[in-house]
Amino acid sequence: MKRTLLKALVFVTICAAPALANEPLPAVPPIPANNSMSSQKVELGKMLFFDPRLSSSGVVSCATCHNPSFAFTDRVPRALGHKHQVGPRNTPTVLNAAFLSSQFWDGRAATLEEQALGPIQATVEMNESLENVVGRLKEIPEYKKMFIEVFGGKEAVSSGNIAKAIAAFERTLVTPNSPFDRYLMGDTEAISTDARKGWELFQKKGCNACHSGANFTNGEFYRIIVPGSTDLGRFEVTKKEEDKYKFRVQTLRNVALTYPYFNNGSVVRLPDAVKVMSKEMLGSESGDEEAALIVEFLKSLTGTMPRVDYPVLP
Ligand code: HEC
Ligand code: HEC
């Protein structure tokens, strides 16, 4: 009874706000005024992203969990971090995170800059203090020189600048030009007939009420208890009763590559994830055939991967 009421409420909320159209992904994401891009800053951010010396063990880097070969995820249900501890949540992709209006499944960081310092300090991730990281990087002359060149000033090596450099690198991790983007731009042959049927279903069923805009997320939080989850989601951040079990709408770009799915990684196959969504979010179950067509459409959201050459670290 309570659930039905909640679902009805969700539905009303969705319908109240007009959904943004699903548009082609821009090649460049929004760049904040206080962190302009430069090729040297991006290079420094890339080095830091791949550098396990940002962790206390010296073996965990951002790329350990956000592995470029796995579309910047780790392909395990829940992240494995410091001393092989299993964290509470699934690793989302960093691809196109630059387009998100908030970071993390519960949206607890507003920007990529704010997000970047979280995993370094999280005990189940990299388990290191910012003070130690800054101290360590200062002792590496090549890093010190780069920080000074990019940021200037006496305190160039700082946690704030580490975050800025990593965020600048992440803003290059975007995947425009997917077959679906080309379809939207007028190339009717860019996706298969089944994918086109799937796109029709995606709209007809109302998936695009939440998975809207260029990045296929409206950035809002909705109540969902995915299989096997006890996670309170957004409630952990706001402590508001109405935010219990709410999670941010996930991007669907490159979703064919970012399995396993959901905040706890409990669903491995994409058709099964589609079925969960149909039932839980829309109250209209998808059979095998319908799920397969929607999956064909979702596969067309795999874009051109950014070219990332492994940095040689000092
Ligand atoms: C031990 C694995 C692990 C490491 C190491 C790690 N992450 Fe993550 N990352 C995660 C998990 C798990 C989440 C989701 C956590 C949550 O929502 O509570 C996440 C979330 C994110 C997000 C938010 C994406 C979104 O869709 O909301 C970004 C961006 C990100 N990480 C970047 C980084 C950066 C930069 C580093 C290195 C400084 C890093 N991560 C290190 C596992 C990891
Ligand atoms: C009411 C809003 C809403 C609607 C409608 C909705 N979704 Fe979702 N979707 C979400 C949220 C929220 C999540 C994140 C769930 C979580 O925390 O694991 C999500 C996650 C997903 C995921 C998993 C992504 C990942 O990387 O883990 C897929 C796939 C997905 N949705 C597809 C669909 C499809 C297909 C439809 C239509 C049948 C649909 N969604 C309808 C809100 C919605």
- What is the residue-averaged pLDDT? 93
Gross morphology: globular
- CATH C-level category of the largest domain: Mainly Alpha
> What would the CATH topology of the largest domain be?
Cytochrome Bc1 Complex, Chain D, domain 2
What portion of the residues fall into strands of 2 or more residues?
A: under 5%
Poorly predicted parts:
11-16
Major pleated sheet: 2 strands, antiparallel
Number of domains: 2
Q: Say what oligomer this is.
A: single chain
Q: Could you state the order of secondary-structure elements as H and E?
A: HHHHHHHHHEHEHH
The portion of residues assigned to helices is: 25-40%
- How many helices? The count is 12
Calculate the terminal CA-CA distance, rounded to whole Å. 60 Å
- What's the number of extended β-strand segments? 2
Q: What's the arrangement of strands in the largest beta sheet?
A: 1-2
